[in-house]
Design brief:
The protein has 3 helices and 19 strands. The strands form 5 sheets. The protein has an 8-stranded mixed sheet with strand order 12-11-10-19-14-15-16-18. A 5-stranded antiparallel sheet has the order 8-7-6-1-9, with no helix packed on it. It has a two-stranded antiparallel ribbon with strand order 2-3. The protein has 2 domains: about 160 residues, L,D-transpeptidase catalytic domain-like; about 90 residues, Roll (SH3 type barrels), CATH 2.30.30. It is mainly beta. About 10% of the residues lie in helices and about 35% in strands. Strand 11 and strand 12 form a beta hairpin.
């Protein structure tokens, strides 16, 4: 738990379970998991304190204000919004923002905005956005975000139904997965983790944990109460792992998602391809 970003603590404190009620990632168990990710629960949400917040004093990540400019091989840079809404700009130095990014609101509290850093120039940071369209990029003012280093990444091969998690260049998890069907494929590309969720029922359709990602379905613009966001989550149907079974989400065994939930910070890069 000590390795996770302070952002995870923020999300947990904002009642992750509430995301299932607010439709942050939503579908219906009766229709399988969705490209929108995790379902709105039919049961009552767990208490906001169902997950303990990890310590933020020793989270294993270094603020870039105190680190070398070059993060080193196998290390990504994550930008966390200092406020709940972050203006983004088409170019560095632009006078007016082209839009503002605000994360979902849970129990009246907006979640912290998470970006994946692509490049930096004095006073400005180029980032990948956690919204449609997939892979959208923009610039943010450096003063509006906090930077963290992240040595983790996920590589997904849809063809072989495999997920590998890395710490630097070392494989720390290798697992079979269930992926999207031909009519609702899991999108390929470079994405990142945007949310960590805990379903009310750990033995339910979505397992004990689920990650929301910056990937969105190319088939569904809406699904259930959600917006077609792709998730990585556990499952109550482990026999379907290793097949094309979902509406776009990536299913893993419950033991695997539990392990990854304790390791991977928000902003962890995800590379999805088909061999």
């Amino acid at each position: 738990m000590r390795r996770r970003l302070a952002a995870v603590a923020v999300v947990l404190a904002a009642a992750l379970v509430g995301l299932f009620v607010s439709g942050a990632l939503s579908s219906s168990p009766s229709s399988g998991d969705a490209a929108s990710g995790v379902a709105s629960s039919r049961g009552a949400p767990a208490a906001a304190g169902a997950l303990p917040s990890p310590p933020v004093q020793d989270d294993g990540h270094v603020s870039l204000s105190a680190a070398a400019a070059a993060p080193g091989p196998g290390v990504a840079i994550v930008a966390l919004g200092r406020r709940t809404t972050v203006p983004v700009y088409a170019t560095a130095g632009a006078a007016k923002p082209e839009r503002s990014i605000t994360r979902r609101t849970v129990e009246g509290k907006p979640l912290r905005v998470v970006f994946l850093v692509l490049a930096r120039t004095p006073g400005w940071i180029k980032v990948q956005l956690p919204v449609r369209p997939d892979g959208a990029r923009a610039w943010v003012r450096a003063s509006t975000v906090e930077l963290r280093s992240n040595p983790y990444r996920i590589v997904v091969d849809l063809g072989s139904h495999k997920l590998l998690a890395y710490e630097h260049d070392k494989v720390i998890e290798r697992t079979p997965i269930g992926v999207g069907r031909a009519v609702s494929p899991t999108p390929t590309g470079r994405y990142f983790i945007t949310d960590l969720l805990k379903p009310p029922n750990p033995n339910g359709f979505y397992g004990p944990y689920a990650f929301g990602t910056s990937a969105y379905s190319h088939v569904y613009t809406t699904f259930g109460a959600g917006d077609g966001q792709v998730g990585i989550h556990g499952t109550s149907e482990p026999g379907a792992i290793g097949t094309d079974v979902s509406h776009g989400c990536i299913r893993v065994r419950n033991a695997t998602i539990t392990k990854l939930a304790k390791l991977l910070p928000l902003g962890t890069p995800i590379q999805i391809s088909r061999s």
